[in-house]
Every structure is written in C-alpha cells, then in structure tokens.
Structure prediction request, 173 residues.
Amino acid sequence: ERVARVRVTHGNLPLAPGNVDGGALDVVATDDFMFGEPLPLVTDATLVNVANRARIGAGEDVSITGFVIGGTEPKAILVRVAGPSLANFGVIGAIGNPQLSVVSGTQVVATNDNWGNRPEIQQAWVKNGAFAFAPNSNDAAVIVVLNPGPYSVVASGVNGSTGVALTEIYEVR
Prediction:
C-alpha cells in the first residue's frame, strides 16, 4: 500500500523529563514516517553532467562555467554550448551562433564554433542522455581529454552575437 497523506495530532506537552502521560495531558513521540534507514554510501557514484543557462552579451559579457576533474587519471569530457537547438524547448531569445573555449588557467585547451555533425559527439551525447542538436546547427560542442585539475568553459557569441545559451559538461562514459 502507498500512503498519500498522514495527519499527526500532537499532544499538548513537549517531550521532556517530568512530562508524562496522564489525564488530559498527552506527550507524543514520533519516528520518521517518510524515510527509511540510512543507505550505505555508493562508492561508484559519479556526477555525469553540469549545466548552466545564461544570457550571453557582447564583448566581455560572456558565460563562464567552472568545473574540476578529480582523481589521478585523464578524463574524456564532452562540452556543449547550445543556442539554436534551444528553440526546440521554447527558449525565447536563444543565441544564434555560440562558441566555446575550454580554459585551464590562462591557456585555451579546446575551442569550437559549430559542432559539425561529428559522429563521435553524437555518440557521446546519446550515451550520456543529452538532447540532440539539430543537424548542421550552429551549436558548439567538443570532446576533450583533460588531466585532473580546474577548468572553465567560456561561452560567447560569434561576431558579437547575443542571447541565451546552455553550457553543458559531461564525463564521457
């Protein structure tokens, strides 16, 4: 059976030393009704995706999304900046031509303007549950292998274009 609603009517005394049941005075103690016992920590859990929706302006008015690669081994990462494909979700004012740069410190590690219908990018987003970009769209995406450490994704508009963009970062599985 599934319980949809529970109403608990408490007594009229707080649970405390010296307060006891008796006559018109009630003391009520309850346990957790909604949660079971704690579950063991799953050691193979991993964060699959981080996303950031932001408005990109002209010049230095860019979107910056930071992330950190942990562990001791390099990881393959899919980075996407959606603009034109956001129209399929009813996003008004989506940027028409975004570009992305993956940055470590002051060094640009990878950059992309148009994702170019690359099959390896399509396979990576299918495996990771990301929505598809329209064929030949101006959305930006790149797969890059990164060493452990901090990184940023800088999303901007090509030729000063502006609008709403969605930056996504996936560990390629």
In short: Residues 99 and 113 are 4 Å apart (CA to CA). The mean pLDDT is 86. Residues 119-128 form the longest helix (10 residues).
